[in-house]
Structures are given as structure tokens and as C-alpha cells.
């Protein structure tokens, strides 16, 4: 009984229907798009750790001195001795430790960041999976290097060329492209750990990559590492998240303030438009009353009509937000520097349609529909049939 009349009203009063649907669509599109960006922003914080194959990166603060041949430790970075590494490796929640020696080489041609790695470690295997040209270094490779693609392109270096690192010449055996998000921990050149120790004279390590059994145990690991040496800097997704917490809190605050304001606007606009339409439809209501429709039945008809328009608006808004997400493709944020770079690292944030937030917005649409319908039903109940008949 209701739906034929509802569809007739929707197509007959196109201006009112379009206003209702577009009001909801614009609000839903804004809510979903903002939620998608905020979710991507939060997720991107953990990209450097996910893609480098580690949960925690350790560095050590120390007043380092210049080394021979222009090769030195990064500024303010110290090394881990065997006792510290053994203590960290035996912690209950630590599954694996990958060691590396990060060096800075200031030479006549410029600056090169070098990382000496254990090729059989998880870090070495991860880096090896990113090789785009040639091959990765192997255990025992002497005077062989793999270059990061941007560094190689800028310096016009290819597989088979020679590159000077410290006082030695290395043969380029491969070019690798760093995985998404991981430039936070990238170097220009990767060599076997023994070569890095040889050109620097350092027999220890200055960067450790840890895998823990469960990310929820990160804080426990942090506490235990601090007991080993309070000078150890612990870098993780939570560390970067904490450094950006004020930004995220502002986003969250304004998001919910925006949700509240837009919900209120939606209620006021829908109620105003439908209330005006209700006065225009007094003749229709009078006819319905004369053919036997009760106030309850008329209220149900208004409820269904408003709900249908709101749901149509939600669908249109969801489609519009999906189009926005596809057009944006990806946005970038500045991540916290690990101390190996002088400037923050840019991390790409792939956007995705937030199904959870969309479901919440759908629930919000239903609540708005019910509230508007209730307010309109009260208006209908206040209009006496005799007044409607006089308007004929």
C-alpha cells in the first residue's frame, strides 16, 4: 500500500527529493573521505617497520669521533658491543636480531651512506628481495656492493661499474629498489659486514633490527632494553605514532566535531525541507484521510519515504567518496627521522575505502531518518483532518 504512493511522491516532487538525497550524499562523502585519509595516515606510520621486516630498530647515542679515510659513524651514534647484543638477543619476547653497521662516507665527490649487513640475516634476505638489477651480495663477497636505485641513477652508476667507498673500490653487482615505506631506514650502498668493518676500522655494530613475538609485547621489550643500556634509542611504529600523536589527536577531535556538526546540519535540512513539503501536501494528506488512512499509516508513509531518500543519499555519497579515493590514489606524509637522515622521510599512504566507517555512517543515516521521520510524524499528528479538508 505504501510503496506505490512513496515512489510516486519521490518522482513527483523532484526538487525536494533531490535536495534531501544530495544533502545526505555530500555529508556521507565528506565523512567517508576524511575517515579514509585519517585511517591511511595512522596505518602509514607502521609501513617502515612492516616493509623492512622488523618491529623495532635500535640505535645508540654516543659522541662519536671522525674516522680514517673520511668514513665515520653517523653523528651522535655509538656502537653495540657483543655483551649488549647477546643480552638483547636473549630477551624473552625477541625472536631475532639482525645487525648492521651504518657508516657515513664524506669524500671528494660528496656524501654516501653505507650499510654493512649480514647477508644471511632477515634484513639481508629482505633487501635481497628488492634487487631490481643484477644480484644481491653474498656471504664472503669481497669488495662487492649493491646500490639503492635513486643513488645509482643520480650518480650514473650501473651494474658492473666501480664505486669508491672509503679507501677501497667496490664492484657494483646489483641495484635495488627500496620497498614502500622503508626509505626511513635506507642507505645508498650495501656491502658485506666484513667490508664495512674493514673500511671503517670498527668491529662492532651501530644498528639492530628486532623481530618480537607479538607487537603487544613491544613495551615489555622496551623496558628490558632500557635496563641493558638507557642510552639505547628504541624506534618503532609506536615511537613514531607517539611523535605524531598531537596531529592524530587533532584529526580525531575535528573528525568527531565534524560528524556532530554535519549530523545536525543534515537533521535541520531534512526536517526543514520535509516540513515545508508536508505543508504543501496538506491536500494529499486530506485525501488520504478521507479514504481511510489513519495518522499512524500516514506517519509510516513519511518514515519510509524519508528513510528511502536518506539511504539513496548514502549510496550516492559512498560512490562519490570512492571516486575521490580513487582519484587521490595516494597521499604522502612526513615521517619521523630515524637519526640517519637530516630531513624527515616521505611515506606514501595508500588510501582504501573504510568499510567500518561506512557502516557507522550508514547507521548514522538510519538514526537521522528515524529522527526526522519522528519529528515530521509529530507535525502530522498536530494537523487536524478538518484543517486539511479546508485546504482543498
Sum up the structure in keywords.
single chain; 392 residues; alpha+beta; eleven-stranded mixed beta sheet; 53% helix
Description:
- By secondary structure, the chain is of the alpha+beta class.
- The chain folds into two domains: 2-45 and 244-390, no CATH class; 48-243, no CATH class.
- Helix content is 53%, strand content 20%.
- The protein is built from 14 helices and 13 strands.
- It has helices at residues 2-12, 14-44, 47-52, 82-89, 122-128, 149-154, 193-200, 218-228, 237-243, 245-280, 282-290, 295-328, 355-382, 385-390; strands at residues 56-60, 71-72, 94-107, 110-117, 131-134, 144-148, 162-165, 168-176, 189-192, 207-212, 232-236, 330-335, 345-350.
- Strands 1, 2, 3, 4, 5, 6, 7, 8, 9, 10 and 11 form an eleven-stranded mixed beta sheet that branches. The chain has a two-stranded antiparallel ribbon with strand order 12-13.
- α10 (245-280) runs parallel beside α13.
- The longest helix has 36 residues, at 245-280.
- The relative contact order is 0.18.
- Residues 336-344 have low confidence and may be disordered.
Amino acid at each position: 500500500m505504501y510503496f506505490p504512493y512513496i515512489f510516486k511522491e519521490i518522482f513527483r516532487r523532484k526538487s525536494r527529493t533531490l535536495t534531501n538525497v544530495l544533502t545526505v550524499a555530500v555529508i556521507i562523502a565528506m565523512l567517508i573521505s576524511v575517515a579514509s585519509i585519517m585511517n591511511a595516515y595512522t596505518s602509514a606510520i607502521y609501513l617502515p617497520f612492516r616493509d623492512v621486516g622488523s618491529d623495532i630498530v635500535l640505535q645508540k647515542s654516543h659522541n662519536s669521533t671522525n674516522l680514517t679515510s673520511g668514513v665515520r659513524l653517523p653523528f651522535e651514534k655509538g656502537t653495540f658491543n657483543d655483551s649488549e647484543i647477546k643480552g638483547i638477543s636473549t630477551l624473552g619476547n625477541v625472536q631475532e636480531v639482525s645487525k648492521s653497521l651504518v657508516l657515513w662516507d664524506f669524500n671528494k665527490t660528496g656524501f654516501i651512506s653505507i650499510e654493512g649487513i649480514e647477508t644471511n640475516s632477515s634484513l639481508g634476505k629482505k633487501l635481497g628481495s628488492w634487487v631490481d638489477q643484477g644480484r644481491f651480495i653474498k656471504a664472503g663477497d669481497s669488495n662487492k656492493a649493491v646500490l639503492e636505485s635513486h643513488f645509482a641513477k643520480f650518480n650514473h652508476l650501473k651494474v658492473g661499474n666501480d664505486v669508491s667507498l672509503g679507501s677501497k673500490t667496490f664492484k657494483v653487482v646489483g641495484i635495488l629498489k627500496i620497498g614502500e615505506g622503508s626509505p626511513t631506514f635506507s642507505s645508498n650502498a650495501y656491502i658485506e659486514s666484513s667490508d664495512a668493518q674493514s673500511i671503517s676500522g670498527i668491529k662492532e655494530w651501530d644498528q639492530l633490527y628486532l623481530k618480537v613475538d607479538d607487537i603487544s609485547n613491544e613495551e615489555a621489550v622496551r623496558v628490558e632494553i632500557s635496563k641493558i643500556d638507557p642510552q639505547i634509542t628504541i624506534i618503532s611504529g609506536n615511537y613514531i605514532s607517539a611523535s605524531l600523536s598531537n596531529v592524530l589527536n587533532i584529526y580525531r577531535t575535528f573528525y568527531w566535531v565534524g560528524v556532530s556538526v554535519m549530523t545536525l546540519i543534515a537533521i535541520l535540512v531534512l526536517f526543514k525541507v520535509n516540513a515545508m513539503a508536508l505543508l504543501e501536501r496538506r491536500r494529499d494528506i486530506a485525501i488520504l484521510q478521507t479514504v481511510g488512512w489513519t495518522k499512524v499509516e500516514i506517519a509510516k508513509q513519511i518514515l519510509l519515504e524519508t528513510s528511502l531518500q536518506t539511504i539513496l543519499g548514502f549510496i550516492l555519497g559512498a560512490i562519490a567518496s570512492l571516486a575521490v579515493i580513487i582519484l587521490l590514489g595516494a597521499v604522502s606524509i612526513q615521517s619521523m627521522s630515524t637519526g640517519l637522515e637530516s630531513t624527515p622521510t616521505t611515506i606514501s599512504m595508500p588510501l582504501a575505502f573504510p568499510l567500518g566507517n561506512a557502516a557507522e555512517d550508514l547507521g548514522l543515516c538510519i538514526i537521522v531518518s528515524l529522527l526526522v521521520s519522528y519529528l515530521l510524524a509529530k507535525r502530522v499528528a498536530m494537523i487536524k483532518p478538518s484543517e486539511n479538508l479546508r485546504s482543498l
